[in-house]
Automatic annotation (TrEMBL):
GO terms for molecular function: iron-sulfur cluster binding; oxidoreductase activity. Keywords: Oxidoreductase. This is (2Fe-2S)-binding protein. Gene3D superfamilies: 2Fe-2S iron-sulphur cluster binding domain, sarcosine oxidase, alpha subunit, N-terminal domain. Pfam families: Fer2_4. InterPro entries: 2Fe-2S-bd_N, 2Fe-2S_ferredoxin-like_sf. The keyword Oxidoreductase applies. The keyword Oxidoreductase applies.
Length: 88
């Protein structure tokens, strides 16, 4: 299956997390921190650190390491606290 990330098509296996699929595709970072804009990606890999946040179908603050990749999803990198159609 495939989903889009930052406008590019990414392949994923059924049951694979977004984070795992992005790493398999060669990405190492996709989020920037709120104050310094430092790059982040998967750090803990178990849902604790929140370094891997992405915007999934307009919904920010989704943990890429815990969220399953789904066919047709539109994933975007997250800047700071996140912006999206469903951001608070
Ligand atoms: S890598 Fe730590 S929460 Fe996802």
């Amino acid at each position: 299956m495939t989903f889009s990330f930052d406008g590019k098509e990414i392949e994923a296996e059924p049951g694979q997390s977004i984070g795992a699929a992005l790493i398999a595709a060669g990405y190492r970072s996709w989020r920037t921190t709120r104050h310094e804009g430092a790059l982040r990606g998967v750090f803990c890999g178990i849902g604790v650190c929140f370094d891997c946040l992405v915007v999934v179908n307009g919904r920010p603050n989704q943990r890429a390491c815990l969220t399953d990749a789904r066919a047709g999803d539109r994933i975007e990198p997250q800047e700071g606290a996140g912006h999206g159609e469903f951001a608070c």
